[in-house]
Write a structure and sequence with these properties.
Elements (H helix, E strand, L loop, with lengths): L14 H13 L8 H23 L2 E3 L3 E2 L5 E2 L2 E3 L2 H8 L6 H14 L6 H14 L5 H17 L3 H14 L3 H10 L26 H8 L8 E4 L9 H16 L4 E4 L9 H4 L2
Parallel strand pairs: 5-6
Antiparallel strand pairs: 1-4, 2-3
Helix pairs in contact: 1-2, 1-4, 2-6, 4-5, 5-7, 6-7
Length: about 280
């Protein structure tokens, strides 16, 4: 054999990497083509993301207690903590360039071009949607605070507005679910550049009560079709699974909301749909 595996390692992005992304996603321009206002906005957003990443990396380094040398001079040294020891503390702070790209796409799709308060509100919502995943307190005191601190270096007024909106918006869990369910891309939209993302909801109950709760709260429309797969003995037959797949594809063709339960056995039938 002459073929070999090629491993590509993507290192932590630097500012020179993320600024072109911000300029292209938000304004469809290169960084040197932005006017002063757009440049301040793109640069402040990049600083916010860069601040989150570096705070997570710096949490892996701690300062050892001061000691003295033979001459009695205090010595302060840095001690590297093993990665495994800080993994849990970095969980809520570790984000990748992919998260930043979806953040930019979300901001691009929702921002009003007259800026002002509309822009700050859109940044706050995009930040909640793409950099959350922790408790509301951890998000507010950790990710959101660090992002705004990074923005404040380049655009203090905008950072203050974003911080105020984040405080007023509160927990965004329900809004994020509704946003995902209600998102309808234009017919000519490219799925590869869309801002829509998967949203994982962890149901700690064994009865699947999360679906009933979302129906009661109006998060799911009353017309949503809930499909139980492998619920009865007949459901394991090929003919039954074919019927279920046909019903689901028909509902999707009409734009209906479909909730699949225990659908692992038929997910391969939707490969062409979920991987457009």
């Amino acid at each position: 054999k002459t073929n070999r595996t090629l491993q590509i390692i993507h290192e932590t992005p630097g500012k020179d990497d993320v600024l072109p992304l911000a300029a292209a996603c938000l304004f469809n321009k290169k960084p040197d083509q932005l006017d002063q206002q757009d440049s301040f906005i793109a640069d402040s957003i990049c600083n916010g993301f860069f601040h989150i990443c570096h705070e997570a990396l710096n949490s892996a380094t701690t300062t050892a207690p001061a000691s003295s040398n033979a001459d009695g001079v205090p010595v302060i040294s840095k001690v590297m903590v093993p990665r495994a020891a800080v993994a849990s503390s970095m969980t809520s702070l570790s984000f990748e360039q992919r998260d930043f790209i979806y953040f930019l796409r979300d901001l691009r799709d929702n921002v009003a071009r007259d800026y002002g308060e509309h822009l700050a509100l859109c940044i706050a919502r995009a930040l909640q949607r793409n950099f959350s995943g922790s408790t509301a307190v951890e998000f507010a005191d950790g990710v959101a605070h660090r992002f705004c601190e990074g923005m404040r270096v380049r655009h203090p007024e905008l950072a203050d507005e974003v911080e105020q909106y984040l405080k007023s918006l509160g927990d965004c869990t329900v809004d994020s679910i509704k946003h995902c369910l209600n998102y309808r891309p234009p017919d000519d939209a490219d799925p590869n550049t869309s801002s829509v993302r998967n949203l994982m909801i962890i149901d700690p109950t064994s009865s699947g009560s999360a679906v009933d709760l979302m129906l009661q709260l109006g998060i799911l429309p009353a017309t949503a079709r809930v499909v139980h797969v492998d619920a009865f003995e007949r459901d394991y037959e090929d003919s039954a699974r074919v019927e279920v797949v046909a019903d689901i594809k028909q509902a999707m063709a009409h734009g209906e909301t479909v909730v699949l339960l225990n659908s692992m056995s038929i997910q391969g039938s939707f490969y062409d749909v979920f991987n457009r």
